[in-house]
Design goal:
Alpha-Beta Plaits; globular; alpha/beta; 6-stranded parallel beta sheet; potassium; potassium ion transmembrane transporter activity; Rossmann fold; K_uptake_TrkA; RCK_C_sf; Trk_Ktr_HKT_K-transport; 22 strands
């Protein structure tokens, strides 16, 4: 595909990185020369310096032949205008980054489609949604649902006392006769392993597991994890992510939100009548103690500073909080934060990239997940009639070894894939894969 990315900020840079490894033709537009030099030095992309709202620059980028135009600058108006112009000039599909929830209302989304903007991505709302999703499964560091939860991907850190420790995948499978969950990847020492039957589970492995709702409790038991109550929640930071998270949680939980900016606290108090808003510096240990951090079930740090989020989560953990979640924008810090004991990380770049990346695959992909602790990706494919994957059982179709099929959703019911599973047209198939082979995987589902 030919893909044009407008804006080389955090999201744009990460998109360029992801797409450049998947053999797409990438063109990047930005007004800042130093940003363009940085992205062209690290990745195989073409660059155009100038505004993405310029007819001249869009034509120079070859917009009339673009399969996808993505505007992810920090300026809402630039993103919207650039997408409208690009569609008029020939781009097949356009996506705009926004920062206004009002635009996502169905009646307003229809207006954007009429203007030529095919999809809108709101990173802060996606991040808040992921935090709420995490709190529904508190023993995990990440959870992603497919087809409304018919299948889910759980990310678990193995406790040293977990029943599966020092067992191979084959041995672990014999613990329970009913195969209702499957390990599709292991992250160990920064490396991603697509596991086979003789691979062994070790303490502190990060394991990616596909299961249906029936298998959640057994999966948690065998990994040494347990579900925690999330009645009392403390949020540090009244950012858009913090605010959206609190709005959702205040109806079902006791929420305390700490914000340094006094004026913002008054605004938050109006928006969050059921939450307690505290004006103060969350880095102050005495303040955390005074506000009862030791009585919290969950501590969520979503300030605009990754270092503050990591350090306050570490402190909250030491003061007795069972689960901590930190917004970490620097991807280099993610493994460090994991090793320091933080339970879950939220990264807007990865979440936004996950949303956008599904439009770059030449197949029907309702869900695409870029994982925080792994260099692999998870895709949900809809199988088209006559697709190669339907011609034989999974063990006979020569599926790439760098990928693994975790589960299948058929008639809204999810089940774990086995070697003798025969995939059918219109099934939804969840695949865990390394980025370099996604273009090979597509061919099995078209």
């Amino acid at each position: 595909m030919k893909i044009i990315i407008a804006g080389v900020g955090e999201v744009g840079m990460y998109l360029a990185k992801m797409l450049a490894t998947e053999h797409h033709q990438i063109v990047v537009i930005d007004t800042q020369e130093d940003r363009l030099e940085d992205v062209s030095t690290h990745f195989d992309v073409l660059t155009v310096q100038g505004s993405a709202t310029s007819f001249e620059k869009l034509k120079e980028a070859g917009v009339k032949n673009a399969d996808l135009f993505v505007a992810v600058t920090h300026e809402l108006e630039v993103n919207i205008t650039a997408c409208i112009l690009s569609k008029k000039l020939g781009a097949k599909r356009t996506i705009a980054r926004i920062d206004n929830r009002e635009y996502l209302l169905p009646i307003n989304k229809a207006q954007f489609i009429a203007l030529g903007i095919d999809s809108l991505v709101y990173p802060q709302m996606l991040a808040a949604r992921e935090i709420v999703n995490l709190l529904s499964q508190t023993g995990t560091s990440e959870v992603f649902n497919f087809s409304g939860g018919s299948l889910s991907l759980f990310v678990l850190k193995l406790d040293e006392n977990a029943p599966v420790i020092n067992k191979t995948l084959q041995e672990a499978a014999t613990i329970d006769n009913e195969l209702i969950y499957r390990a599709v990847a292991i992250s160990r020492d920064g490396q991603t392993i697509i596991p086979r039957g003789n691979d062994v589970f070790l303490p502190n492995d990060i394991v990616y597991v596909i299961t249906n709702q029936k298998g959640v409790s057994k999966m948690m038991k065998y990994s040494g994890q347990k579900k925690l109550d999330t009645h009392n929640i403390m949020i540090l930071g009244g950012s858009r992510i913090g605010r959206r998270t609190a709005i959702t949680l205040q109806e079902s939980s006791n929420v305390k939100l700490i914000e340094f900016d006094k004026e913002k606290c008054f605004q938050l108090a109006d928006e969050l009548p059921r939450a307690m808003i505290i004006n103060g510096d969350g880095r102050n240990i005495d303040l955390l103690r005074e506000e009862g951090v030791d009585k919290m079930d969950v501590f969520v740090a979503v300030t605009g500073d990754s270092e503050t989020n990591i350090l306050t989560c570490i402190q909250a953990k030491r003061l007795g909080v069972q689960k901590t979640i930190a917004a970490v924008e620097n991807t280099d810090y993610i493994n460090l934060a994991e090793n320091l004991g933080i339970d879950a990380m939220i990264n807007k770049k990865l979440i936004s990239a996950s949303y956008i990346m599904r439009f770059t695959v030449n197949a029907d992909v309702p869900s695409f997940v870029c994982l925080t602790g792994s260099d692999a990706e998870v895709l949900e494919f809809v199988v088209r009639p006559g697709a190669k994957i339907t011609k034989a059982s999974l063990k006979e179709v020569n599926f790439p070894k760098e990928a693994i099929i975790g589960g299948v959703i058929r008639d809204k019911k999810g089940f774990i894939a086995r070697g003798n599973t025969h995939v059918m047209a219109n099934d939804r198939v969840v695949v865990f894969a390394l980025p370099s082979i996604i273009h090979r995987i597509e061919r099995f589902f078209n």
